[in-house]
Amino acid sequence: MFHTIWHPTRHGGLSRLVMAALWKLAKRLRARTRVVGLVGPLAMVAVVAMWAVIIVLGWAIVYWPHMPDSFAFAPRSGLSRESELLDSVYLSLVTIATLGLGDIAPAEGWLRMASPLEALIGFVLLTATVSWVLQIFPTLTRRRVLAIRLALLHRSGMSEQELDCAVGAALLDGLATEVVRVRIDFTQYAEAYYFHDGEDDSSLAATIGYAFHLARRGQEARRGDVRLTARVLADALEDLSAVLDQRFLHTDGTPAEVFAAYAADHGRARTGP
């Protein structure tokens, strides 16, 4: 949980393995478009469920060697007649859910301290889940806004004269800023990669190639400010491609090849020359 949500680089190893496995599985299914669109949300549910199962079973292992001698059972509960492992899992599940049923309680000193600690971990799990959900969707919004903006620019058919001016420099600078934000999002919220952006212009995988095209055109402009902002945009795109390649695609190719692989991995054809 710490590595997935709070670590600065957010390298949640086990969580990433679960999400990547579901992504690859969905890509192999025939109904690819419909299934891939559900991978991100379902993967988050699977990861949270995995966290909960690990915590429940981990604390059950703590209780198991001391069951039933170190615990007090409510009269006529019937719990003491169950297997010791089942009683341990039941106690762990009730504790982490903070239900407080009271039909089984630790009687030994250190176990009476350990049981509330598990309840606190249950609160942490709930808080972490809510925080994770609230963090991921603004990330998706920023990515889709950039994708739609690039699609609109591509449809506008911007001429050389319109690009080679102060407005063009401001446009390239704004695009560079948005690309940097997306690059940071992929670094800090790697799970966002496994969310499908849809089949319209909101797919960055399909439209990012046009930003690459604008950066090349801007570097050939006459105005110095346009050339400068175009170089900044090109560098931002190169950094983004490096993050995508190192974390997800592993092509060891050029930025253009990485973006092509990104589009292919999300089932989209690139937009732009």
Automatic annotation (TrEMBL):
It holds the Pfam family Ion_trans_2. This is Potassium channel family protein. InterPro entries: K_chnl_dom. Keywords: Ion channel, Ion transport, Membrane, Transmembrane, Transmembrane helix, Transport. One of its GO terms (biological process) is monoatomic ion transmembrane transport. It comes from Actinomadura sediminis. The chain crosses the membrane at residues 35-65, 117-137. SUPFAM superfamilies: Voltage-gated potassium channels. Residues 54-135 form the Potassium channel domain.
